Amino acid sequence: MASNASESAVPAIAHPTPGDSFGVAANIVYHSQFSSRFSPFKFEVEQAFYATAASVKDALVQRWNETYKHFHEEDPKQVYYLSMEFLQGRALTNAIGNLGLSDAYAAALTKLGHDLENVREQEKDAALGNGGLGRLASCFLDSMATLDLPAWGYGLRYKYGLFKQIISSKGQEEYAEDWLEKSSPWEIVRHDVTYPVRFFGEVQVDSDGRRKWIGGEVMQALAYDIPIPGYNTKNTISLRIWEARVPAEDFDLYAFNAGKHEEAVQLQLKADQICSVLYPGDSTEDGKLLRLKQQYMLCSASLQDIFSRFKERRGAISWDEFPNKVAVQLNDTHPTLAIPELMRILMDDEGLGWDQAWNITSSTIAYTNHTVLPEALEKWSQVVMAKLLPRHMEIIAEIDKRFQVLVARTRPELESKLEALQVLDNSNPEKKLVRMAHLCVVSAHSVNGVAELHSEILKKELFSDFYSLWPEKFNNKTNGVTPRRWLRFCSPELSAIITKWLRTDKWVTNLDLLSGLREFAENKQLQEEWNAAKLANKVRFADYLLKVVGVEVNPQTLFDIQIKRIHEYKRQLLNILSVIYRYKTIKEMSPEERANTVPRTVMFGGKAFATYAQAKRIVKLVTDVGAVVNNDPNVSPHLKVVFIPNYNVTVAELAIPASELSQHISTAGMEASGTSNMKFALNGSLIIGTLDGANIEIREEIGEDNFFLFGARADDVPRLRKEREQGKFVPDPRFEEVKDFIRSKAFGDFDYEPLLEALEGDTGYGRGDYFLVGQDFPGYLDAQDKVDETYKNRAKWMKMSILSTAGSGKFSSDRTISQYANEIWQVGQCRVP
Ligand code: Z57
């Protein structure tokens, strides 16, 4: 088993190169010997992981230094992606894969008595994000590095990332997850990169009328860099995450002054709090002061860093050059404070006038919207904002004032709507608010949605009047996912087949080449190989479920998966209600009829926001249904229901390649894009879904025959909701039957009434079945019948599966990022020679 590293007959330190597994082994041994985790008596799998990661990090840091040296010399325009979330997952497989060192590391570890498969399992997910928005940011970093763009990601270094989900008999329970417990092997602390960040205080006016923000609490932001390697390129960029600190000098100063010791301790606590925890809301508004502090920490530190880089490269400063050297993309409204902060720096620190500062700010900043759900649109109290950031509140009020003047001057007919359009919402004098999305739309030069339908809804509904003012600002950038992590590395089996049939592996960086598979979609040989790869992935996932979750699933059954945050609009409830209907149906069948059904394993995974009661009830219902169905000896050979606990990036990497059918069944108009739909299609999983978000474009690309479509159209939703409220809706008897079955306590005596109640038209809240579960139920059952019928025809299913992959080329984040670079950022490639 594990060998003693000091006994290995390998030469001392060498740089890892593809052909040289001895050199790689030596490098690992070197790191193991100088690692605090290493004991000369053992070199076990955990030590092996940290030593391997340290060795890989050497290679990354070397490339990373070269990359930024090159950027510095070439001085191109750079892009800065500001995001409160980066959902990175594990890094080892990705790093060695991108470096082309997978085989070398596998061989080296074998020499050292280890197995790469086991070693990589040691790594904890970096879960500094909640869901789609955070994972998108991480896919974008991978593409920006791979496309040789001079780019940086900026985020926060939360101590606790997304909570760990444990499923007990009570349902979901949340536990803190300290991803830094054993330290992260990838980050590099940059004690040379720190900036002061101020909170509270007041605005002072100089004799010359210049305003200055002074006083308050001053903390320090300390940079940590995580290297992000591109695929097949030396370019390695950086995800820079900030940690809040009290500078040691300050602390000592206070500490030696006896009376102020307490104050020093308090400030330290406040600093620790800022980066303590990721807010775990996904599409939920969270109006907490601490969250606003986090947002400002990100914006202030990142902009200071951007300014210092801008200044460093030019002696005499021409501020109008700034937008030619800097592009800032805001990932949702979470980093909106970058707007008033940029204005403040330009005016108060650099002495520019409003108009010049405004032109620079708006040409620099671009905004991406990720949701139209009203409860997810950030609004901050003006009182809170004025207290925490007095100068920013002044600037925001001035932006609002000038916006009103502009509308009055240029579009008097909008006068009546002005209040609803303003940045400041003063409609309730007790609770005056800042509408962060309006601030973004008014200030940025680009506003984009994340799928065609979503971008249309932004123009026609959410921001329609802004669109009439500035049509040129609005654009679409359909999301994408990185084909490295989401196909090449998570399914090496399928990747090898694709490479074999396309006779090239160029598809990894040119995903459109996948369309070359179309001509072989009916080829028996390909279908057989395809089926075998999918089956291998199913077996691997079944092993995981048995080992980690303790449930037995049969890899010969249809693997049907819905994994995403639990939300009413995503309609996991629709899925489980149809499962209940299936259970009832199978239960009532004769043994002969049962033998004729398509056996299915229906799997759910996802986290519910801790205080989102309905979402948690849905989780509970799924597990309760599973307990009954899986233990029913007549039914369980034909149907199993599994809740996969603690869904995260690593679980996704196992589940997606194993999936044959995936569910993307949101109420039309509510899912901005979805990105797992792209990952599933890419992996040959067929989609059952509504005409929502990117589903529409996926269906267009892979062909409507290869997509199980059902449900109301986005255009019809408002009318259907109204009809529902007016009691005009006649429910399908099967819908009523399923609800009655739950009410009969068939799945235990947990109180499901609040869930069932919300499905009725007359809740008394005027929001009866807001998500149209009852409306879409019959169409959904029909679509599921079609799934079964199709699955019985293996050749047909395989053809559809191959065509799903073949049609996924558009959904590479390389395509998305190229569009951002060309159409929004005007940033070109800068490749390290
Ligand atoms: C989040 O993950 C998304 C939107 C939000 O407003 C917040 Br807050 C978090 C998601 C959307 O729900 C998905 O539809 C979309 O694919 C994803 O962002 C990336 O754009």
Read across the widest sheet, the strand sequence of neighbours is 7-10-11-4-1-12-13-17-18
Structural class: alpha/beta
Q: What is the level-2 CATH architecture name of the largest domain?
A: 3-Layer(aba) Sandwich
Classify the fold: give the CATH topology of the largest domain. Answer: Rossmann fold
Mean pLDDT: 94
Overall shape: globular
Count of individual domains: 3
Strand content: 15-25%
Q: In total, how many beta strands?
A: 24
Bound molecules: (1S)-1,5-anhydro-1-(4-bromo-2,5-dihydroxyphenyl)-D-glucitol
Which segments are poorly predicted (pLDDT under 50) over 5 or more consecutive residues?
1-12
Can you summarize the main beta sheet?
9 strands, mixed
CATH class of the largest domain: Alpha Beta
- N-to-C terminal Cα separation, in Å? 42 Å
Looking at this structure, what is the CATH superfamily of the largest domain? Glycogen Phosphorylase B
Number of helices: 33
- Based on CA atoms alone, the radius of gyration comes out at 28 Å
Give helix % range: 40-55%
Q: What attributes does this structure have?
A:
3 domains; alpha/beta; 833 residues; Rossmann fold; binds (1S)-1,5-anhydro-1-(4-bromo-2,5-dihydroxyphenyl)-D-glucitol
